[in-house]
């Protein structure tokens, strides 16, 4: 096993959370600076990451995952909604 | 919202862009040298040290790659890509191949990161042409081993637009689907964009009543041929855009929503050299052949590939009002060097005939060109343009023949025979059209 591999599930979840935070920051940069290649690329990373989370027990699925999180089709904030948990 | 997919790259200062190109070219050559035996042999034979590439002069010392070399290399091991392959076979995730118009098809291996790169290049194209997340984009083509439009499909996903795959449907089913779900854009060859409009009318629809406001063309130069572009715009009541690419190279050129007719060269992802017959760079304002290096390929890289496309190079802020700093191909791809042919000593570009036919309302969209030996004078060639009557005008076949003959004489300097035949006499191609039938026996 590679030395970089996490030792346990907590560490695995933390890695996923770090990636999620990085993707969100990239996306925010793209939006703020009007660079669709960064904003849309980061959104794609978030989509891929969602499928990784679904394979990690206990990993939090991002609010609005799987759709356009600019819009809430249910008219709800989604706050507190943690599918997959 | 930005008019550009990546304004950081598309408006980059020219000096910075050139430095970026040399850096990425060096990395690409290093990758090819380290992972592809084909390129290692080639570069060793030329005495090229990848790390020594520091200037454009160094770039030009690197040998070019010809299509014939690719075919030869792919005849060897490992099957099916030969030692062009610069990745492990397990690293290949996408198979495509060229259409084989000029010989045996070349197989194209792409890794996952290559395929992401393809999508990003196409996203640059589509975003420049107004495709946005609220678009519903239809792809009326047969999804198969040819790369055409596959990457555009995935670029739409990347943009966030809704993709409607229209493969394995008849043309009539396609236009009905486009109408039913209010498609806002579609991508096709120029030939097929015109054919779909024709089928829509046959199905009782008026294409201009559709929700389509954007037509993205690829595969043929038509959307940069003024006569063809105007016909597609009129048929669909939509903006029509051009794109240029190749299986070996990727999507390297695109028109935009600015005031220009031609293609921006995507110089952030490709090093595009425009060279004269001696292999020297042409100046802006001149015409030359493209030698291209995709700058971010891994599984099957191409180093200074001779694309055989000819363009008229332009540069500077005056070429387009969009703000891009990329150089520009005025009028799009002027011709494939493989398509140019000499007729009675005069160089004939098929696009010149296309523009003459499509700019004249007295004939319909379809046509073909036959070049043959003169029956009595063996030293002479005869060019016959077969065009169809236009059922929407009352121009007679004789009038149309005379008008086209005069126009072609003016634009090509060749006296052509014109044969105007009844509407729908000619075959309707559904992808690329092969309209030139060269029957000369002793022509080289």
UniProtKB/TrEMBL annotation, chain A:
Residues 49-85 are annotated as: Disordered. It comes from the Archaea. This is Uncharacterized protein. The lineage of its organism: Archaea, Methanobacteriati, Methanobacteriota, Stenosarchaea group, Halobacteria.
TrEMBL record, chain B:
InterPro entries: AMP-bd_C_sf, AMP-dep_Lig_C, AMP-dep_synth/lig_dom, ANL_N_sf. It comes from the Archaea. Gene3D superfamilies: 3.30.300.30, N-terminal domain of ligase-like. Keywords: Ligase. One of its GO terms (molecular function) is ligase activity. Residues 345-440 form the AMP-dependent ligase C-terminal domain. Residues 98-292 form the AMP-dependent synthetase/ligase domain. It holds the Pfam family AMP-binding. PANTHER family: BLR5969 PROTEIN. This is Phenylacetate--CoA ligase. It comes from Halarchaeum nitratireducens.
